[in-house]
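[audit] Reproducing an earlier prediction to check determinism. Same input, same settings, fresh worker. If the tokens differ from the archived copy the diff job will pick it up downstream; this log only records the rerun itself.
[audit] input (222 residues):
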Amino acid sequence: MLKYRCAIFDLDGTLVNTLEDIASSVNRALELYGFPPIPHSEYVQKVGWGIRRLAFLALPESERNEETVLKIASSASRFYAQAPFVFSRPYPGILPLVAELQRRKVKTAVLTNKPDTVTRLIIDGLFPLNSFNAVQGDMPGVERKPDPQSTWDILIALGLTPRDAVFIGDSEVDIETARAAQCFALGVSWGFRPRQTLEKAGAARIIDNPEEVLGFIGQNIF
């Protein structure tokens, strides 16, 4: 089997379980403007496309106008940036996986639709220094996943090609990104979407444990 030289990870639902902090921030924004909060469990199917889309989906259907969506998105982003990892933690096995990839000199990157500033706060707060060769979140003027351009930009910066990379994620957005960028699309079952969603999106493989990533990089020596 072809061994890959780079692992590009989604953040939410792949590296870190961020659901409680995301839900708390959006619900706080909803309540600020007089809208009812929604159960945290409902956010599982709403995350992945960025904060504006999340705000849109969290609002009652009758209130999903541009002005209100922007207010909720802005407030939720502010609340989230103030406390981005109160409850959030890396999934079991993620920290040793990243450390082992580093040991093997495999290039690692994070690509997420979460705002870039908050992304960096979470990575810096929950992972050892220099765990990743590249980290990129949502930035003005840059297309979000599933657009492949950011994936290509990361690979170019690392001196690699799509054929060198495994793109690892828990949602249809990640699988669509991987396929559009022509990377190996590796789904994970421990995140926010069910296995059937990943299969339907066209995942090349779906894994159940982080250490299985090493099977694509080289011999598993955990």
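[audit] rerun output stored. Observation attached for the diff report: The longest strand covers residues 107-115.
[audit] end
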